[in-house]
Amino acid sequence: MARFPGKGLAVLLGCLVLWEVLARQSGALALYFPPASQVLATLAAILGNGELLDHIAASLLRFAEGYALAAALAVSAGLCFGLWRPLYALFEPLIELLRPMPSPATIPIAILFLGIGDQMKVAVTVYACFWPILLNTIDGVRAIDPVLMNTAATFRLGPWERFRKVVLPAASPQIVTGLRVSLAIALILVTTSEMVVSNDGLGFYILDRQRSFQIPEMYAAIVALAMIGYGLNRLFLTLDGWAMAWHKGLTRKEEIL
Amino acid sequence: MSHLWGSRWSGFGFLLLLVLVWEAAGRYGWIHKLFFPPATKILASFFQIVASGEVLGHVGVSLWRAGLGYGLAALVAITLGVLMGYWRVAYESLEVVVELLRAVPPPAIIPVAIVFLGIGDQMKVFIILFSCAFPILVNTMDGVRSVDPVLVRTARTFGLRQGALLWKVVLPAASPFIMTGLRIALAIALILVVISEMVGATSGIGYFILDSQRSFRIPQMYAGMLVLALLGYTLNRGFLLVDARLMAWHKGLTARQR
Asked: How far is B167 from chain A (nearest CA, A)?
């Protein structure tokens, strides 16, 4: 596994100490800039009394629903578009029109039709995550080496076998790329939709504590959110390393000395 | 008829059909009388807000914020990325901090930025800078680290100094990665300018759209989204043009032989 990042942890510790010292010296700014130790103590307190856990659970549930739904929809649609060109030609102008629009712009529409509850937040997350996965899946299917397909045809693989044994594995690295991009986007959209209108979730909690001037709580929740983001990313990389081990073994570059 | 199937025109025909269905759905209130206005009404509102210049001011403000944040992010992140990709010590020292900061979803930084910078332009530029920096940084770093060692050694053999080596060998070799980072960051800049204008602002296209919804000027809300889509499309196209021009040498070099 990865080597122990000694220097990195030392620099991180240095940053925390600098934060602590600066915050203690800041005087009038102290209200906005609590020392690191206070933020960490607050984090422990709001985690301990369960206040934060409900918000974390609400956000994670929205994240999971939106991300999973987007992945299922976008991978299926992407495979169809990638395999069947006329279908893509039919939808291309629509895709080109919708794709570049920044996804948070759909929040107001989602509010109109779905209200301000969970449905709205999940729908917005699905919409935002859909595009990177879709486009990467289409690209992945398109980029399949024709030799592979011809070989499969030579060996008389049926359509289903060809799909399962050639198309899916060959497109999977690109699909995984799309899924990784969308992971970060899903967190952004869940947080944003909770900030724009909500009464629970981490995004709501962070903005609400800022507005009620409970600044240490605000920082503590941001630290918690960062840890969740980091954890989800790690989890993704682990799953990716496990599921795509065959691919990494196949494409590893020979070390040139 | 069959030659149309699969051609470019099939797509535009389909789009036109969708617009017609939208028009009918809006006119007859199939979906919702108030929330789903007919396409013609949205288009009329689009021309009206463009002609009156109302939306242009908002677009200008948004573009200024996005451009400044994006430009600063590119400057900071490419510099730092080259440093971290080239010098092992810099990478080992900063890796943990970068990984931690990168994990924060940028909207979560908005309240902090409001506390320190208020709700003006500075806050938005900072948010865009923060969120665009990481994709550029990580891609630049990867690009620099994947430069073929043979290139670097050849350059050293020919007696290139450190500065010339970075400028003439490392940067060009890493530039496809840097462009990838810049392309991802462009989309993120647009997302974050809209978000920051929705959370705390009195101007900008994100504010315009959310404000139209809150004051129930629904056709205007859709028209604002259309403006935003066109803006995103134009910026994307512009980026691809610049990319094609700057990276023509690279595409020529790596074009596969038929």
From this structure: 24
